[in-house]
């Protein structure tokens, strides 16, 4: 899944790599808090609470500034891996490509429904991320 964000990679990557921003653009997340002090990097871990009763542990498993960010998530027995790849778009913004690998923690009677619902949520979240970052750029906000 790919979205083009009208902002440079040098803006998009640090925003996305700061996992504490997750509740700003992901409708299902209430809070994401680091488990250690300091900026995010490979190996950084976070606790995340969501609108469902489940909490999760996130870990940055790949961190290549302005190029690649991979986040692994464990919630109970379920796991997921989100890989964000960053490239320059032809319009001067950022082309953000997301691939996901999801492993439910239980047997599903309809894995096709689980996958399709998850893809809809991921697509909607990416579109919201685009809006949030473009609004930040328009407002001239820097971190």
Topology (SSEs and partners):
Blueprint: E1 2-5, H1 9-17, H2 22-25, E2 29-34, E3 45-50, E4 55-64, E5 68-75, E6 78-88, E7 94-103, H3 111-139
Antiparallel strand pairs: 1-7, 2-3, 3-4, 4-5, 5-6, 6-7
Structural class: alpha+beta
Roughly what fraction of the amino acids lie in strands? 35-45%
Quickly count the helices.
3
Rg value: 15 Å
Sheet with most strands: 7 strands, antiparallel
How many strand segments? 7
Order of helical and strand elements? EHHEEEEEEH
Shape: globular
Assign a percent range to the helix content. Answer: 25-40%
Mean pLDDT: 86
Question: Low-confidence segments, ≥5 residues, pLDDT <50?
Answer: none
- Major sheet strand order: 1-7-6-5-4-3-2
Written overview of the protein:
The chain is an alpha+beta fold. 29% of the residues lie in helices and 38% in strands. It has 3 helices and 7 strands. A 7-stranded antiparallel β-sheet has the order 1-7-6-5-4-3-2. The two termini are 27 Å apart. The mean pLDDT is 86.
Top keywords for this entry?
143 residues; alpha+beta; 7-stranded antiparallel beta sheet; 3 helices
Short description, anyone?
It is built from three helices and seven strands; from the N terminus they run βααββββββα. The chain is of the alpha+beta class and 143 residues long. The model has no long low-confidence stretch (mean pLDDT 86).
